Amino acid sequence: MKEIDTLPPKLLKEIADYISYVKYKYGINDQPIKIDEFTLVSEKSLAKDWLKPEEDEAWKDL
Q1: CA nearest 16: which of 4, 6, 25, 27?
Q2: DSSP codes of every residue in the chain
């Protein structure tokens, strides 16, 4: 997960496609993972809030 967090948004679609392929190949799930454009666009704009120390504190127990 840490490595995925370092990728630029445009590569996330590729990663999602690969995960879907592996899950399908091994019969884990036949539903593809979908990352739509809205998700990719909003990630960049929300990142400034997600990367705040208080966010880390709020989510540390999850």
Answers
A1: 4
A2: -HHHHTS-HHHHHHHHHHHHHHHHHTTS--SPP---HHHHHHHHHHHHHHTSHHHHHHHTT-
Look up tokens 């490595």; give the residue: 3
Q: What's the pTM value of the predicted model, to 2 decimals? A: 0.45
At residue 32 the predicted structure's pLDDT band, cuts being 50, 70 and 90, is: low
pLDDT, tens digit, for every residue of 7-16?
887 788 888 8
